[in-house]
Amino acid sequence: MTVMTPTPIPGRRADCSDAEWEARCELAAIYNALVKYRLTDLTNQWHAMRVPGEDALLTHHYGWMHEEVTASNLVKVGFDRTNQTPENGEPNPSATEIGKLFFEADPGMNCIMHIHTKAIMGVSAQAEGVGPYSQAYLMIGGADVIGYTDYEFECTDDFLSGLRLAGQGRKMIVEAWHGAFVFGRSAGEAFFRSFYLDQACAVQLQVQQAAAGGATVRTIPEAEQARHLSDMDASEWYGYEGELEWHAIRRRLDVEMPGYSD
Fold it and tell me: Mind listing the pLDDT tens digit for each residue in 14-31?
């Protein structure tokens, strides 16, 4: 295996628009926030942002740790698969293929996170999927927002076709034995959904462990799920997905990891 060490040029490029730079800062914030919340997987996982007004996306060099990612060293790849910033390295091929697939299919989608924490992987192996064991389950929107697909190592045409079908009308897809693809209209929305998907899965595994030890488990009844989801949707505080939290996360990163926006 040949390991490539990219030589990115620090700072904002002269041909980078204001909109692209903001997208770069948002995506770099995702990578670094995942480090803060211990939701990384070595150099694996990938996340992508649409470049506003262009048929292109941003993602990281396949080989960087999450904490190495900055706004300026993200790789820009056209939907024609052309690497427009080769000095920044090479993207994970699945980021290019899957990012292109969903960004072209849904003009309102601007961010995709591919995350495989231990908790999400654990629940992805369960035939019943993500269950109603906690408020975190409600925070992601309940069962109707989750699609499911089986794991595939290569991005074959059949896999991509099935993935697109699984994602229609959904906010996320759980991929069996592997992880999840989480969608958002913004970086904050995708991060919010990813954070609470991980939390919902972690609680589910803890509850199941307690049940195996003899505890009596209470799941949220379907009628209560519907009532709570309706109340949350109408609430001034919960009728959104992550904007309040994302601003707070960006403020924390500005203080503790300010290099992400370089």
Answer: 789 999 999 999 999 999
How many other C-beta atoms are found inside a 10 Å radius of the C-beta of residue 152? 16
78, β-bridge pairs? 56
Look at residue 5 in the predicted model and tell me its pLDDT: 76
User: pLDDT tens across 76-128, in order?
Assistant: 999 999 999 999 999 999 999 999 999 999 999 999 999 999 999 999 999 99
DSSP letter for 85, please: -
End-to-end CA distance of the chain: 30
The answer to whether residues 198 and 39 touch, using CB atoms and an 8 Å cutoff, is yes
Q: Provide the token pair at 61.
A: 């060099």
**How far, in whole angstroms, is CA 72 from its chain's centroid?**
20
Instruction: State pTM to two decimals.
Output: 0.94
Handedness of CA 54, 56, 57, 58 (dihedral sign): negative
7 exposure class (CB count in 10 Å sphere: 0-12, 13-18, 19+):
exposed
Say how far residue 102 (Cα) sits from the centre of its chain.
Answer: 13
The low-confidence residues of the chain, meaning pLDDT below 70, are 1-4, 239-240
Sorted by sequence, the CB contacts under 8 Å of residue 192 that are 6+ apart come out as 139, 184, 241, 242, 245, 246
Structure tokens at 188: 């904050």
- 139's CB contacts (< 8 A; 6+ apart) are 192, 196, 199, 200, 232, 238
